[in-house]
Design brief:
Helix content is about 45%, strand content about 15%. It folds into two domains: about 90 residues, Orthogonal Bundle (Arc Repressor Mutant, subunit A); about 80 residues, Alpha-Beta Plaits (2-Layer Sandwich). The chain has about 180 residues and is an alpha+beta fold. It contains eight helices and seven strands, in the order H-E-H-H-H-E-E-H-E-H-E-E-H-E-H.
């Protein structure tokens, strides 16, 4: 788990990443209302464990507190916290397999300079992990819609300027690819 944070801290980061405003105040009714709107697994979290997780995230400078005019305290995810939350989210990400193939190939090309070799190698590993197949050293392909997942990956690694996304109707060795992706 990146950052060495526990499950509760990870959930807090993911909720904040998702845009959920976690507001806390001395008012137990307001506090209960926030948790009532959350999923069941969140309602089962030990409040002391949650408070420790929030304190740890604050001390690690991943979140900040803002006091509202009514006295409520709002948690806000900062840039570094967002990066870590994106990594957690990425660990769970998969490209969904559609029931029927639209006969379009998604081709991802990248040209990353030698001085950024680690980024290049990491991107290759992550594209393979998502199920893309390598056509050439810096060219990957997938038969199903994956633009959101690729965009997410590009943003996570700040690689937008090096990566291109193409949709193609035909690839000259597509019979081989169809076998690899079990499309025959």
């Amino acid at each position: 788990m990146p950052g060495g944070f526990g499950e509760t801290s990870q959930k807090v980061l993911l909720l904040l990443l998702g845009g959920l405003a976690l507001g806390f105040s001395g008012n137990p009714l307001r506090y209960r209302r926030v948790f009532k709107s959350l999923k069941k697994d969140w309602q089962e979290i030990d409040r002391r464990k949650l408070q420790r997780a929030i304190n740890r995230l604050y001390e690690s400078h991943l979140i900040s507190f803002k006091t509202k005019p009514d006295g409520a305290v709002e948690l806000e995810l900062n840039r570094e916290g967002r990066k870590i939350a994106l990594r957690y989210k990425f660990d769970e990400m998969k490209i969904p397999v559609q029931k029927s193939w639209d006969k379009h190939w998604r081709v991802i090309l990248f040209d990353i300079p030698e001085e950024k070799r680690q980024l290049r190698d990491t991107l290759r590993i992550q594209l393979r992990r998502l199920g893309l197949r390598e056509l050439q050293k810096s060219v990957f392909v997938h038969p199903y819609e994956c633009r959101n997942e690729i965009d997410f990956l590009i943003e996570l690694y700040d690689a937008r300027r090096y990566v291109r996304f193409i949709e193609a109707l035909h690839i000259d060795n597509e019979l081989h690819l169809k076998k690899k992706f079990s499309l025959l």
